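Q: What would this complex look like in 3D?
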Amino acid sequence: MNSLWEFLSMSDPNVRVVALGAILLTATSALVGCFTFLDKKSLLGDSIAHAVLPGICLGFLISGTKDPVFLIGGAFITGWLSVFAVEFITTRTRIKEDAAIGLVLSVFFGVGILLLTTIQKSGNASQSGLDSFIFGKAAALMGKDLVVFSVVAIALLVGLTLFFREFTLLSFDRDFAEAIGLPVKRLRFLLTILIVMAVVIGIQAVGVVLMAAMLITPAAAARFWTDRLKTMVALAGLFGALSGLSGAYISYLLPSAPTGPWIVLVISLIAGVSFILAPKKGILSRLLKQQKNRRTIHEENVLKTIYQLGETNRDFLVGRTAADMEARRSMDQGLRSKILNNLESKGYLDKSTNNWSLTEAGRRKAERVVRIHRLWELYLTTKMNIAPDHVHDDAETMEHLITPELEAELEKQLNYPKTDPHAAEIPYQKP
Amino acid sequence: MSINDWYIILTASVVSASCAILGCFLVLRKMAMVGDAISHAVLPGIVIAFLISGSRDSLIMVAGASAIGLLTTFIIEFLHRRGRLQSDAAIGVTFTSLFAAGVILVSAFTGKIDLDQDCVLYGEIAYVPLDLFITDGGTIVGPRALIIGVVVLLFISGFVWIGFRPLALTTFDPAYAGTIGVSAALWHYLLMGSVSVTTVASFESVGAILVVALLIGPATTSYLLTDNLKIMILLSVLTGIIASAGGYFLAVRMDGSIAGAIASVNGVLFLLAMLFSPRHGLITKKIGRKISAPVQSE
Amino acid sequence: MKTDHNKQIPAFEVHDLTVAFDKKPVLWNIDLQIPQGKLVGIIGPNGAGKSTLIKASMGLLPISSGYVKILNEPIDEVRQHVSYVPQRESVDWDFPASVMDVVLMGRYTQAGMFRPLRQADKDIATDCLKQVGMLQFADRQISQLSGGQQQRTFLARALAQQADLYFMDEPFAGVDAATEKTIIGLLRSITDSGKTVLVVHHDLQSVQQYFDWVILLNTRLIASGAVTEAFTSELLKETYGGKLSILSEVGNLIRRESFPNRETTLP
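A: Here is my prediction, written as structure tokens for the whole assembly.
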């Protein structure tokens, strides 16, 4: 814990540089990743990431040093070449996009590995550290490297901000973008360049093998929290920054360890948490909603049963026993008594010894359920030509779902009918 | 050439052959990237099986890692269906996180297990002749990796031989297959299970990442050369073998990684097929058009 | 095998069928019966659930409620007697196979999935190719077929199944006039021999000329009956008059609230 505190206090200038650098690199990749994500081109990012390796090696072979300008330049060229290769193979041969990506990715990476192993055995002393591009090393972000990477990152951010609206349109609805006269082809080209740039700068911290995760995972995680693009981009950037910071911390603790896998593990964890906990779209909230639906259905069914028991003699508020209810509608005994108690505590039922009776609020609620049930049956028979003996099951479900607005619309469209298809009275609220 | 050279080339060839056979179906099913994802995702399975069993030639290893491979396809589908995450992102999120976990395990347990990052990246096929399989009686049967490779190849060939019709049918027209009672899901998982087994068996030779080159390279190359599925499978095996031999000599010449060189040669073979394939080659078609153009104008 | 079906039982019966995509119902409470020996057109606007009706009937899509019976049996009992022709675009025609390979797929049910095909199967496939006028293309690669030829290949595969009930999803989409004529002639000869054919169809002009029976569909069933009775301008107006607003709103509500389609199918 001590080391974490020391790290977070940022008193060491080296730590400051590495941490800020890592945040900058991962956050910018996360931002660009949002657009590849929405464009459903996430795996293309994977192929670009793998394809920069031969470029880095070539850059080294040409310059003979680890000059960042040469390495980035080489990475940029082969990264872009891989996009071109995928596009060419998909359009000019019968090979489909997934296979083209897999092929280009593995062949470029294979060439990269071949060159890298050759360089490593060549005895050139300055090559050491070249392999840190494979799994990333945030600690290596120092001096000139950081300056060059930051310049690229800032250029990327500027490009993204300037064309934000255009890229938004492009990823959401390409046909529409074309229809309103946007230069779609040129914009796509620009976006591709930005993706390659994001990969090229991200690899210092994350490494080529796992770089794809920095494009995909923050965007996927952010998508669970919001439907608005701006919020999504901001969240993805934040998630990316968090994982970058954790990568820098790992580098601080274990200077020789690869940081990429840790960064990816952190961002995956964030995605996992989002996947489970995010409101509305998270698995948990959907399960809770289903649970709630189930309870509503049971409660309304019990209220309805008590109401229907009173329909024959129009004595709705008379107390009923569990046996009365069972005779009308079969249900698990334990579940029923639980539901009855719930309804009592909500003020829909009154209890006296073994009898349960509707309160006025309970009667209104039950009446509404019965009304919707019968209105829906009538709607199905009159508007959808469904035989009267087939409409009950559907109405049995819809009675719990239909909103007051839809209810009013139903009444209007059916012209406030008096009876349902089985000649049962449709009860309206007495004013 | 020494016997060791032959062992390496043979091992690479049998591994390539298994990958190529399955790769044909992956490519035709447009599931190449799922194959990529499985090959990455088996890494944590391999490491954990390693830690439990303490050795690398146990069945636990193949079983454990294959289970993770299948789990990967389940997770991808779960994220896609229940999480409503688009499929490309579901694939990407799943395999990167599993692979990251695997690399961390490798680095955490280096020393305890006979695995390192280089092996993950490009395998150890150069050391294949050093690790011999010796029976209890003391007879040297051959390199262990080669024997595992042959067993897996026999298994994969048998699987595809027996299941050829349902595999082809569910690939070409899964809806029709469903209507005549052939479960597309069943054959999907059988295929993915086989891919997992093969990736695990190939891991030692070529690492976790370059397996993809063996799965996709020969399959795409042969897909450009023929219009007959059976011939396509045979040609892909042949392509895989040529790439293995060619890759070995290239690696020796450049003094670099054999697996990397095999992947590179696969790229070259694809390029040749793309340009010069008798029916689908880009240059062949251009020349063909020039020759036939006057005939058509009559 | 029950080859001698009672001619009185309906060829195809749908009872209270609801089918949902991602919870939202695309077919709602469909009820219909089709007598044997009819050539049936399934008509409706895009997104009306026409293909869904066929796919759900063949057991390719999960059913939310209701059931389907074919020749009075559940589909799994009579698969051998039912043939399905998917939309031409639903498969990748770059698949490495010849026309004959595809047609022979139609014999898999009768010949067994893992047993070698006999000469008799090959003879049947050849005969079916002859019927659709594709015999000279038997060895051609399917990637080199025109749209019409692709459709004829699929039709030959269906014929090779020797079924009693045929479902065809848009067999006339994007085919040339000659193919359309060949196909309709073949369908007519199938129904003349007492078998039943259901066809998803788009072209309203040709409905009266082609079909004996129509099913008008737009999420709900508008009508199912003999062409003379059901193919009226009034019913057509209802079919193409857009979706019922309440119905689609309730559908959206079901999806948004993760609500079950049927109370009884609670998770």
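A: To summarize the key features: The CA atoms of residues 288 and 294 of chain A lie 10 Å apart. The domain at 282-431 of chain A is CATH 1.10.10.10 (Arc Repressor Mutant, subunit A).
Q: Very helpful, thank you.
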